[in-house]
Amino acid sequence: MPRSGQTTPVPSSRLPRLPPGHIPRPGLVERLAAQDAQLRLLSAPAGFGKSVLLNEFLRTHGGNGRVIWLNLAGQALSPGQLIAHLASELDRDLPALPAPQALQQLLAQRDAPLWLVLDDYPGQPPAELDDCIDQLLARALPELRLLVSTRQRPDWNLPRLLLAGELLELDARQLAFDREHYERLVDRLAPQTAAAARDELWRATEGWCAGVRLQLTGGSPSGAQGNHCWLKEYLDHELLNRLSEDEAQCLFALAHLPKVSATLCQQLWEDCDGTALFERLLARQAFCMPLDEHGSWYRVLPVVARVLRHRLSEAAATRLHLAACRVFIAAGQVEDAIEQALCAGQPEAAANYLERLGQEWLTGEQHLARLLAWRSRLPGTLLESTPRLLTLNAWGLLVSWRLDEADACIAKLGHFLPQPSARRNRKLLANWQALRGVLIALRSQSATHAVRHCREALAELPEHDWMAILFCHSTLARIALAEGAQDEVQTRLHQALEIARRHGSLLFEVLINLDCIRLLLLRGEHGRAQALLDQSFVLIGQRKQVDSLLLGRLHLIQAELHLIADRLDDAERALHTGLREARACADPFALAGFLGLAELHARRGHFDQAFQELREAERHMHCHQVWRYAYSGLLNLQRMRVLARQGRWERIGPVALRIRRYFVGERPWMPQLDYPTLPLRNQLLLARSRLETGHAEEAEALLLPLLDRCKVLQFIPLVCEVQLALAAAWHALGRDEAQGLQRQALEQAERLGLACLLRDQPDAGQAAGSGGQASLLSQRERAVLQLLAEGFSNQEIGGTLFISVNTVKTHTKKINSKLGVKRRTQAVMRAKALGLLV
After folding, report:
1. By percentage, how much of the chain surpasses pLDDT 70?
2. Which one of 344, 397, 668, 754 has the fewest beta carbons within 10 angstroms of its own beta carbon?
């Protein structure tokens, strides 16, 4: 058979035309070409691009053989009808033989390859047709390759073909668009679609191509009724017309449930064998998508479920939700039981189930978003009906930075005092103090009060309230970090990690690791930070669930490391991934994603985009009811950083002074728990604005105490930045120490790998001297760089140094990374500035 790379394209006239706005799938095409299997089988529901993929494959890998494309349109046909179609296509007489032998005679003894496409093979074919094709596959005709698209896996001897290496099969999971292809499709069909609408449509369609196209028809991806009409008609024709009445009614019911299984269906439809009914829906490819690798749980594709739900009457839907609620709670599926109780109009039952959730539940998957959604659907009287419910809600509100609501929630715990026993009284008071201490710290009100509450809570909290204990240790560690109490930081974080591990909580171990990584970043220990970050990704990967809250934060920290090293493309990918995860679970750390994107755009000189990210960040915080002062200072700080890159220093001073007033005076605020450098960086920007507007003495007066403070706190990267600013101020004042301080700061920045800082120092090479830069590149890298500067090509460099072209490319990438640039011309200019080249 012809192989990829040795074939000529099949003339497009032999194949159906590709659809308008076609998005090529080269990865899947190459996957089909990678194995010269006798049967290539594509089995998936309607609209997953099966026919289009076969078409695309044959256009590039069909060779010079003959293509016969039979569109069976899902209609059951007899073997005789199939053979008649083939004889007509081949311009041959019908053999006077039984069907299996006739089919083999038509397709055998060919002197050229034959690609036979059975497009939309019927889901319920006559047994004779299946037997006929099964016998054909058993013969393994040497020049025949069969390509089949179907919505129901055919009843052929597929295991035998698989063992013989003659089967290549793709299902809906492989055929669905990945995020990259999805974005390209949206860009082609509706490029004006906003990011939030894109995310919503992605979650609803999960890469189902037809669903994306139909939802975007008319230019609105939001699921407006006009677009639903198109999707409804599509499902009527392509799905419902192929189902029996009882199968359709079962599907309408399943569209109301968050997940389904054969066991659940059996319990819901005992009278009509629910298991068999569900298995028939799976066989019909009725958009029941697997949720696990074992095929135990499924879910109707969200966009399909949304269209089908109205087909079930309200009374029937209520009965279904009540029955499902009982089944879920009996199986220990508490979250699903809560959702079904709410859908059935039983908030009391939902509140009762809510109390059963475990301690680490809040930080897993997308549970924070679920809790906040349930709060909006449950009456306040129920949410406040027990101390456990109040405590769970208070922690959720604290984690989501909705601090005014958290304050009110915590205050209501006092209504349950005194408790019936002294032990329960101490337990409730300790939980109140833990919540109160974390609240005060998040509000940056008083470090003294926050520390007192957390320490007193730790003295009384029982061991089984370990979530509150962990949050207290984490809060105390972050307060100590902002105060320079390094021993206290290490002790608290170590204790918290030990508790998390003793309780087997990977989620809380990763949560505490995030605190440790933050500490390492502030100290400039980037290698250790990356190692711990990698370890945390491995830990969270051990869980089968997708823990959006922690994954989002890990990706955002990874983006920060990329930004420090000035790897902007890597940072952009990590920022988008982290932001997507954070938004999915209503994590306020989405703010870090917006801030990172604003910084990235500013470094590229795209200032309008940078300010747009900051506006979107503010809007996001408003929509999620985040406490204003948890984000306003950070937004203003990043705005000033963008303005600084624009050189608009006159606009920075007033903003920096407003922020500074919160951190000086008789009642200064403590630094924010998650951003302890905010007051320090604000003072640095204020000093730089004074310097740039001609007030070098004022800049010096601000920078000297700032430098001392950063040294005490051991925030080494920030020390480098302050030293560079101070050196610039001394230079403006004519001080002899300026050059020495600048050289010291730049050498330190190079040791720490602060490419982001070095890129903004145009005279870094002259200040630091060539001797201080010698260790930046290896001897071989300097040799490659010298030849690049002389205009040698990769091939010429390889020949000169006796290394391969791939090795040259590897050295070039390392050089670009170390110098904080993207192109070789930039690398040469940067190296000259650093004194690495003459």
Report:
1. 94
2. 668
The letter for the amino acid at 324 is A
> So what CATH class is 399-588?
mainly alpha
Compute the distance between CA of residue 595 and CA of residue 610 in angstroms, rounded to an integer.
Answer: 9
Give the per-residue pLDDT at 762: 55
User: Rounded to 5 degrees, what angle do the CA atoms 375, 377, 382 make?
Assistant: 65
363 contacts 508 by C-beta, under 8 angstroms: yes
User: Omega before 418 cis (within 30°)?
Assistant: yes
- Counted residue by residue, the chain has a size of 838
Positions of CATH 1.25.40.10 in the chain: 399-588
Burial 577-597 (b: 16+ CB within 10 A, else e): bbbbbbbbbbbbbbbbbbbbb
At 578, is the pLDDT very low, low, confident or very high (cuts 50, 70, 90)?
Answer: very high
Dump the DSSP string for 287-355: SEEESSTTS--EEE-HHHHHHHGGGS-HHHHHHHHHHHHHHHHHTT-HHHHHHHHHHTT-HHHHHHHHT
- Residue range(s) in the chain whose domain bears CATH number 1.10.10.10: 768-838
**Cβ burial, residue 598 (10 Å; 0-12/13-18/19+):** buried
Beta-strand pair 66-71/114-121: parallel
Antiparallel, parallel or unpaired: β 298-300 and 288-290: antiparallel
Q: Return the DSSP state at 9.
A: P
Contact status, residue 18 vs residue 142, Cβ threshold 8 Å: no
Q: Which CATH architecture has domain 12-175?
A: 3-Layer(aba) Sandwich (3.40)
Model pLDDT for residues 324-362, shown as the tens digit of each residue: 999 999 888 899 999 999 999 999 999 999 999 887 898
Torsion of CA 694, 695, 699, 701, to 10 degrees: 160
What strands, in cross-sheet order, belong to the sheet with 66-71? 66-71, 114-121, 144-150, 39-43, 167-170
What's the whole-number mean pLDDT along residues 719-737? 92
Residue 244, classified by CB atoms within 10 Å of its CB into exposed (0-12), middle (13-18) or buried (19+), is exposed
The reported pTM is: 0.77
Question: Selecting from 1.10.10.10, 2.130.10.10, 3.40.50.300, 3.90.700.10, what CATH number does the domain 768-838 have?
Answer: 1.10.10.10
Domain with CATH 3.40.50.300 in the chain: 12-175
Do residues 835 and 770 touch, judged by C-beta distance below 8 A? yes
With contact defined as beta carbons under 8 Å apart, do 146 and 118 qualify?
yes
240 close to 284: Cβ distance less than 8 angstroms: no
